User: What shape does this take?
Amino acid sequence: MPELQATAEARTAPRTDVAMQPEGSPPGAVPASLPTAAPQPAGTPIAISARDVSAWYGPKLAVSGISMEIAANAVTALIGPSGCGKSTYIRCFNRMHEFAPNARVGGEILLEGANIYAPRVDPARVRQRIGMVFQKPNPFPTMSIAENVAAGLRFQGIRSRSEITDRVERALKLAALWDEVKDDLKKPGMALSGGQQQRLCIARTIAVEPEVVLMDEPCSALDPVATLKVEDLMRELAERYTIVIVTHNMQQAARVSDYTAFLLMGDDGAGHLVEYSATQDLFTHPQDKRTEDYITGRFG
Ligand SMILES: Nc1ncnc2c1ncn2[C@@H]1O[C@H](COP(=O)(O)OP(=O)(O)OP(=O)(O)O)[C@@H](O)[C@H]1O
Ligand SMILES: [Mg+2]
Assistant: This one.
């Protein structure tokens, strides 16, 4: 897959030093002890540490004991065949999994070192700090473009009109949508094209200034031009935010991500982490035969 490799190399070229973290490393750096943690360049700041995370729907185990360190201010991609638990796993990262009936999460997820599943943690606050963008753009249907972006700010209790106006403008600029909508802020969000709606949803997510943005197949409902715009946006956003993206599109993972994790359903019917490394390494020198088979299109 030469095109894919070339893109992966270009994207991740500066990040080829993938030694594990030595003893006595600074706080927040990758601990060497986790069996399935990705190798990271020494000292890379970590935004999220997932430790032995499992997820159930009632009695059904959907994700089995996945540990990963997610690098801050980088794009981390999750890939793997349909049904291997990518969406379930990513929804554990901001406590959305628990919206499913009888859902349960095991293990720990640390955001800046603190477990988001600890008692007394407010899940709504977690979802402000770790926002999510979904597969299908979902602007609030009765709201204007500006109101969509302001919704989370109002939920946070911000009342100052000038502050809301400023933050709406800033979020729309960051989401690379401002120039297209600045004269139409009162129009319904639903009146935008699909690609614009998805950037509106990204603006809505970043307006509350999260630390992490989770994106579950954010481009799968978009045409190629809109997809490239959202991919460019992801790279820009990674300068300020930590991005975790689920994608079925391996070219996309290679284009936009710094790190890639490959998940696969095990014999127990649940998703396992097979391989996790710098994107360039995973696509050019996969360590596991199953990863190689998947990225070369032999299954999935
Ligand atoms: N709400 C739910 N209730 C019960 N089981 C569920 C629910 N959502 C997902 N599952 C099951 O959990 C497993 C993992 O599903 P998940 O949606 O996480 O996979 P995925 O890797 O995101 O798949 P896709 O690539 O098709 O989106 C599947 O067996 C699925 O049927
Ligand atoms: Mg999914």
Summary: Strands lie at 46-57, 60-71, 75-79, 103-111, 114-115, 130-133, 212-216, 242-246, 259-265, 271-278.
